Amino acid sequence: MAKSKILFVDDDIKALKRFNHTFRAEFDVDTAVNAEQALTKIYSDCEYAVVVADMRMEDMNGVEFLHKIKRITPDTIRIMLTGYADFQTAIEAVNKGNIFRFLEKPCLNKDLRAVIKEGIEAYKQIKQVEEKAHTDSLTGLYNHNSIIEILEKYVTQAAAAKQPLSLAMIDLDHFKKVNDTYGHQTGDNVLVTIAQVIKEEIRETDNAGRYGGEEFLLVMPETDSVQAFIALERLRKRIESQKWEQQGLKLTMSAGVKQYMDETAVCFIKKTDDLLYLAKKKGRNRIEIFEAQAE
């Protein structure tokens, strides 16, 4: 299991070395000597579970710094180390929600470790809630709204960077017959299995979502339509050869694949869906492709 990422921010080099030595065995520790360096790290990598910052830093007040982090990456848990003179300020920061906890300096390693672990658990709970909000409850893929948002983001990026982007609309052939013949419980199990197959076949950079019912959407960044077609054909063959417990159950898929061509996300989906309809019309268990250069 990957270690949780922790960022310590302090202009005391000795303190940073102590933090690194003390906690590196338990956490993925990163350090920064001032707020500016820390913000640079955070802008490039927002996956810190916890940030621990000193209240007094030369370039920025600790409360102000942690408030900036809240705006950049609100899920990150913020912990402040403070001297006695800043005790009231720390309490006010907690009450305003700018920080999760504060510890008075000097603090024992065991106390800091306990607060960090508490922060990590809070971070994990936040992420679990977010994941549930963005995923389809049955298949574990992105839900309809989330996959559309992802597509819109990549459409904007592709338009700006002039990079290829492909979209695939997948539909399971004659899926209604599965429900009618074997029951809805089997139908749900089939969808779960197909979703797992899709997860195994796509790349880490691809995004898969349940568009609705037995339809799935694949967003494939930096991928032209020919590359996408090859990936979808591999997926089609695997689904066709999938073995099922139910006697006589056999499943195939049809798909439409299109490369982005300076269009809105809505238009992009519509044209890809038209290709899926064409694949159905031509007999199913096939993929229709619309190459960018032909448009």
Q: Can you describe this structure?
A:
The chain is an alpha/beta fold and 295 residues long. The protein folds into 2 domains: 5-133, Rossmann fold; 144-294, Reverse transcriptase/Diguanylate cyclase domain (Alpha-Beta Plaits). 49% of the residues lie in helices and 19% in strands. Helix 2 (35-44) runs parallel beside helix 3 (62-72), helix 7 (175-182) packs across helix 8 and helix 8 crosses helix 9 (225-241). It is elongated, with a radius of gyration of 25 Å. It starts with a strand and ends in a 5-residue tail after the last strand.
Short description:
The protein is an alpha/beta fold and 295 residues long. The protein has helices at residues 13-23, 35-44, 62-72, 87-95, 109-134, 144-161, 175-182, 184-201, 225-241, 265-281, and strands spanning 5-9, 28-32, 50-54, 77-82, 101-104, 165-172, 207-212, 215-221, 253-259, 287-290.
